[in-house]
Amino acid sequence: MPLKTFLPLLFLAAGSHAQRTSESSEASITDPASECAPYAYAPVTSALAASQFPPIWTPVASLLPNDAAGLALFAKINSSIPNIPPKGTMAGDFSNFTPTYPATDPDCWWTFHQCTQPKAAGLSADVASVPEARTLGYGFDDGPNCSHNAFYDYLTAAQQKATMFYIGSNVMDWPLEAQRAVADGHEVCVHTWSHRYMTAFPNEAAFGELWYTLQAIKLVAGVTVKCWRPPFGDVDDRIRYIAAQLGLETVLWKYDSNDWKVGTGGVTTATVQANYDALIANVSAGVFDTVGAIMLTHELNNYTMQTAMDNYPALAKAFDHIVPIAVAQNQTQPYVETNYTFPTFAQYIATHNASTVPAGPVPGANSTTSSASNVTGSNTGSGSSSGSGSGSSQSTGTGVSLRVGVGAPLVLAVAMGVLAVL
Ligand SMILES: *[C@@H]1O[C@H](CO)[C@@H](O)[C@H](O)[C@H]1NC(C)=O
Ligand SMILES: *[C@@H]1O[C@H](CO)[C@@H](O)[C@H](O)[C@H]1NC(C)=O
Ligand SMILES: *[C@@H]1O[C@H](CO)[C@@H](O)[C@H](O)[C@H]1NC(C)=O
Ligand SMILES: *[C@@H]1O[C@H](CO)[C@@H](O)[C@H](O)[C@H]1NC(C)=O
Ligand SMILES: *[C@@H]1O[C@H](CO)[C@@H](O)[C@H](O)[C@H]1NC(C)=O
Ligand SMILES: *[C@@H]1O[C@H](CO)[C@@H](O)[C@H](O)[C@H]1NC(C)=O
Ligand SMILES: *[C@@H]1O[C@H](CO)[C@@H](O)[C@H](O)[C@H]1NC(C)=O
Ligand SMILES: *[C@@H]1O[C@H](CO)[C@@H](O)[C@H](O)[C@H]1NC(C)=O
Ligand SMILES: *[C@@H]1O[C@H](CO)[C@@H](O)[C@H](O)[C@H]1NC(C)=O
Ligand SMILES: [Zn+2]
């Protein structure tokens, strides 16, 4: 009679995912499921244990009691914040608000009529187009996505840099992926902590949504960013002012690919392709002959990233240049830290004319080639950092990426060998 053998199982306690430590090894993973296996990253784990960040994927309610720097900065700006009450709900329900909101749009509320020229004194206009003609300001929202290696490999092979608008909660979940953007020479901007409608937040909470995302990017990637994009474009002069006090330029868009909306509200993949095609047709129609374009596109999921890749050759052929937002503005110091340098627009295009990219898929894309293109000068390195991933995330259909299951006890069973069926 055969002896039945029980093979040992190692049970890891909740939250103790495998450690991962290196940006380059994370960037070399090619299987999306492995990329997206939650992992622990010591600096993030420690920061969370020390209550230095609010709960991941939860709207910020207030600054944390032990956050001396955040509290001091907020106290300093508090009395000068424009006296504009919060609007609607953070889920984007403005039905109780818009009926009483003046048609003159006194708050320059983008959600109302796409206002980008602030009415409050001292605020700069939002960036909704790029100043260089026949140029596409290239950016992606909602990352870092755990499965982004194929997309970032593609950009690397195309020697194409972009502006990545990162959600703070995603940065904490996927710190090594966030580091990759900086290592690859992309520009990183803030896209809030919990990806809600910003005009609904009271002042301190709105400050916290931006502040903790700035801190997360600094913790993980070592840089303090200078730009942000409001989720759903939902910004008014109160929120613009708070962002400006944090050194953040507000970046919007003029065209929406609607890639984030596929499957909802009658938006199909054909709709999205038509939006890309219309943008491309507009280049030859002369629409961008004096001012370039910004179209909203996403690092949200496999479809949005694949669609970006599929359309890249045609965009590169149509536009004279495709550049990150900072490059279109000759912003050569994209971060507060002075040891990162971007090329000027002239320097970038001297080596990166979009039209020189061959039509068709870029061959041999892989992350190990990232150091080959050195357009960002000294922009290398990923600083320190942290991170732990957990849960899975979903698009709610309103474009809000909500992480599901974070905080629920996760038990990882690692089979040490073949599990015998007894
Ligand atoms: C901010 O100012 C408001 C009044 O405008 C005051 O009620 C509140 O206590 C202040 N908060 C902080 C943190 O200073
Ligand atoms: C294309 O140009 C037309 C005319 O200016 C404009 O109405 C439309 O919004 C543009 N669409 C895109 C995607 O560029
Ligand atoms: C990342 O993309 C994958 C598909 O490639 C998707 O399943 C996942 O939900 C996305 N994660 C986030 C945080 O958006
Ligand atoms: C989309 O998913 C497929 C199947 O996992 C994968 O081969 C492909 O590389 C993914 N594309 C992107 C852009 O992530
Ligand atoms: C960028 O700098 C070049 C000079 O190098 C100048 O011609 C161009 O107008 C500048 N663009 C912007 C948007 O400032
Ligand atoms: C890119 O285009 C500019 C003119 O827009 C030209 O001066 C430059 O030489 C081109 N660079 C390359 C690498 O083709
Ligand atoms: C990436 O390309 C390099 C050089 O061609 C190769 O040595 C390496 O194995 C490739 N990595 C992956 C993950 O494909
Ligand atoms: C990258 O650019 C910097 C600054 O222009 C230069 O000093 C360095 O030698 C370049 N490195 C490579 C590998 O080309
Ligand atoms: C910039 O300086 C910081 C520390 O001051 C360091 O952690 C980081 O690696 C440096 N980055 C580069 C690209 O030199
Ligand atoms: Zn978004």
UniProtKB/TrEMBL annotation:
Top-level EC class: hydrolase
SUPFAM superfamilies membership: Glycoside hydrolase/deacetylase
Coiled-coil residue windows: none
One example of a Gene Ontology biological process annotation: polysaccharide catabolic process
Subcellular location: Cell membrane; Secreted, Cell wall
Any one Gene Ontology cellular component term annotated for this protein: side of membrane
Catalysed reaction equations from the record: [(1->4)-N-acetyl-beta-D-glucosaminyl](n) + n H2O = chitosan + n acetate
UniProt domain NodB homology: residue ranges: 134-334
Membrane topology: Lipid-anchor; GPI-anchor
Region (Disordered): 360-398
GO molecular function (one): chitin deacetylase activity
Keyword list, A-Z: Carbohydrate metabolism, Cell membrane, Cell wall, Cell wall biogenesis/degradation, Chitin degradation, Cobalt, Glycoprotein, GPI-anchor, Hydrolase, Lipoprotein, Membrane, Metal-binding, Polysaccharide degradation, Secreted, Signal
Cofactor(s) this protein requires: Co(2+)
InterPro entries, A to Z: Glyco_hydro/deAcase_b/a-brl, NODB_dom, Polysacc_deacetylase_ArnD
Family: Belongs to the polysaccharide deacetylase family.
Protein name, entry field: chitin deacetylase
Source organism per UniProt: Mycena metata
High-level lineage: Eukaryota, Fungi, Dikarya, Basidiomycota, Agaricomycotina
